[in-house]
Amino acid sequence: MTKKTKLEGKVALVTGSAQGLGEAILKEFVYEGASTILLDLNRKEANKVKREIEESNNTTEVLIVDVCDSKSVNIAIDNVIKKYKKIDILVNAVGGFHNFDKIKDITDEEWHKVININLNSAFYCTRAVMKYMEESRTGRIINISSGAGIAPNPHAPSYVPYGAAKAGLLGMTKLLARDAGEFGITVNAIAPGTALTPRVKKVRDPESIANIAKMNPLKNIIEPIDCAKAAVFLASDDARYVTGITMMVNAGNLIF
Ligand SMILES: NC(=O)c1ccc[n+]([C@@H]2O[C@H](COP(=O)([O-])OP(=O)(O)OC[C@H]3O[C@@H](n4cnc5c(N)ncnc54)[C@H](O)[C@@H]3O)[C@@H](O)[C@H]2O)c1
User: Fold this and answer.
1) What is the pTM of this model?
2) pLDDT tens column, 67-91
3) Average pLDDT over the chain, rounded to whole?
4) Tally of CA atoms within 13 A in the half-sphere of 60 that contains its CB
């Protein structure tokens, strides 16, 4: 097999990469030759992913950080810079939701929690890496949004605070893409459709997952590797003039 080298020499930090889509993106970056940093809250799962990567004769650095805490994020990014001298690629993959409560039942606390994890976290991480990317006049920022940030899922329930946060993330992507361009930095989003990550297996019932697959034009749901391949493209030199876009990876679940 030809060695994969699309990200050789790059330093990539992927938040939320101890499981799910973030894990798939991190592993694909590793296999494409990047030096990677797995940033997550869940030490047990993070160490499991690190062991799996080491079994393939590769390595990753693990950082246990809460991305909803901006001070911890700043310290973590400064430490990465001290060690690696640069961050070429940031993937903001932390996010998600855990129920389908209707708006009249959503407390202030729950609303803020969902906005924090899906939107504020990406702002904190992006702000922390931006000054270093600007100095080096290169960089790739990839925000993992969701189809929910574009429109309600046509084939299954959606969750209002989550859609609001993910739409916010798309807004941030587009406006920042314009500001960051003069520094050689691209900013893009991926809007995945439903994928069977550990969280989604808990939050969506099997019936609605089967329904999404049946109703999608491509008659299936996506797998985490599909988002990972899209992220490799956006992070690679192949996408050097691609900025401000939302790449929908959703088997046709939403078509615009
Ligand atoms: N799975 C899907 O169907 C789907 C669809 C559309 C969008 N997305 C988006 O993709 C991303 C990943 O989703 P997933 O389903 O893989 O989620 P997941 O819950 O399976 O994985 C999320 C990871 O983020 C980590 N994390 C959570 N809060 C954190 C925090 N405060 N600080 C650091 N790490 C934290 C978790 O420990 C976990 O490892 C999310 O942004 C989600 O909104 C997922």
Assistant:
1) 0.98
2) 999 999 999 999 999 999 999 999 9
3) 97
4) 36
User: Atom of ligand 1 at shortest distance to CA of 96?
Assistant: 43
Flag whether pLDDT at 4 surpasses 90: no
CA nearest to 38, candidates 229, 193, 52? 52
Q: Is the pLDDT of residue 96 over 80?
A: yes
**What distance in angstroms lies between residue 191's CA and the mean position of ligand 1's atoms?**
13
Return the domain boundaries, the chain: 11-248
- Known catalytic residue: 159? yes
Give the CATH number of domain 11-248; options: 3.40.630.30, 2.60.40.1120, 3.40.50.720, 1.10.443.10.
3.40.50.720
Q: Atom 4 in ligand 1: which residue has the minimum CA distance? A: 194
* Active-site residue, from 31, 124, 132, 159: 159
How confident is the model over 141-168, as pLDDT tens digits?
999 999 999 999 999 999 999 999 999 9
CB atoms within 10 A of CB 31: 18
Ligand 1 centroid to residue 2 C-alpha, Å: 31
Q: Where are the alpha helices (DSSP H) in 91-197?
A: 108-115, 121-136, 160-180
